[in-house]
């Protein structure tokens, strides 16, 4: 069958076939292909929003803004809760589509959808009062928080629904209206969620537009978008910031990471091995805050590796639609090639030791065996860069001070962790690790009431928690003399 013929047989997916613009479901004239990473073949078409569609979405969001802002926290919370309930209730029905476009195991797709609803409710429950900074003989000073206006949210492909819905909840709860763009690799489930909102939220409050990278660039340059909330790679984040500068948009960037974990000589090794296996390989290692390099004290190296290799070697890898898999394929061809290149480069290094995995299975789909490699030094790209895949390097250290310095010798600073039975020691090490979040005896927890974001090139600002959600608001000071 020729390629043209194959494309002719592709179709829009019922229920995920429309952008949501000003309360209307619009499929438009153009479309692009969505690939199933378990086969490497396109399986569906997605509507492709034009620049005019974006203009219409922004205009609708602008028009809906005054009434939505005036609704107040309680009124907005009620509607966000209703949308969250619809998303959670649709978890079973939408999970196969999420697995189809993303590759993740069906159970994890179900979980992502259900957790999205849960997180939306947590975020829309935060208490965000205006504050009195001072009321004294020097006068009364109040801090008031206003919505910004129209927010543009740009999402990545690794947790397409959850990461988008975090932005939806934060932007809408604080009184903004929103234009949301999913990743072109994983747009369909987000469009289906947009459909769930179509008859629930006032028209224009939430707009969902799918398209390519150019659509993201149009958003960052758009004169009538007031803030960009972006989650994605460092390279794109820099472009977003540069483009947003022209209109001085507010910008929050949640970017990549190269999280180090330090296993000290007094760690609970069973807990450390379980935590590293979970954090390093869940979602096929495609998590911004996944453990991406392990530093273990020389004296416990062998004991840790025995436990870690047993856990990672037992992971079940296969198509996400087959029940019971722990890991599916890498999400897309570009990422697949990137991870394969890191792996091949690491394997070619003198001294490299594959402790488990190391193979790219023959056959269709973007599968890579879960892999642990020892014997590498700091300069190897697999250690220095963000691999974003199921290939984990393990390095050893003789002194904790040196391990901290090596962990910090990175342009990234998203997360880090330390494993130790001695709480004071662990806290002391944690405070010296230059990362936005440092976990002790765990890694990678995502909690809606806790601010999250990166130091250095891993981010710009924070999301979640009261401190993070305030980035969707503008602070106003009201000041008057003492009565
Ligand atoms: P990406 O930067 O390639 O794409 C992210 C989004 O940006 C997509 O929607 C894409 O279409 C859009 N985009 C591309 N070019 C653009 C441009 N010039 N202007 C505006 N938008 C543009 O990232 P990805 O590959 O989808 O996601 C993986 C990356 O995201 C990893 O680096 C990962 O660590 C990071 N990430 C970070 C967090 C966090 O919270 N810090 C969470 C998840 C993922």
TrEMBL record:
User: What keywords tag this UniProt record?
Assistant: Oxidoreductase
Q: Where is the Aldehyde dehydrogenase domain?
A: 30-477
The cross-references to Pfam families, in alphabetical order and at most eight, read: Aldedh
The record, for Gene3D superfamilies, names:
Aldehyde Dehydrogenase, Chain A, domain 1, Aldehyde Dehydrogenase, Chain A, domain 2
Q: Look up the coiled coil feature and give its residue ranges.
A: none
Origin: domain of life: Bacteria
Q: Which InterPro entries match?
A: Ald_DH/histidinol_DH (IPR016161), Ald_DH_C (IPR016163), Ald_DH_CS_CYS (IPR016160), Ald_DH_CS_GLU (IPR029510), Ald_DH_N (IPR016162), Aldehyde_DH_dom (IPR015590), LUC3-like (IPR044086)
Locate the active site. 254
Q: Which family does it belong to?
A: Belongs to the aldehyde dehydrogenase family.
Question: What protein name does the entry list?
Answer: Aldehyde dehydrogenase family protein
Name the source organism.
Sphingomonas canadensis
Name the lineage: Bacteria, Pseudomonadati, Pseudomonadota, Alphaproteobacteria, Sphingomonadales
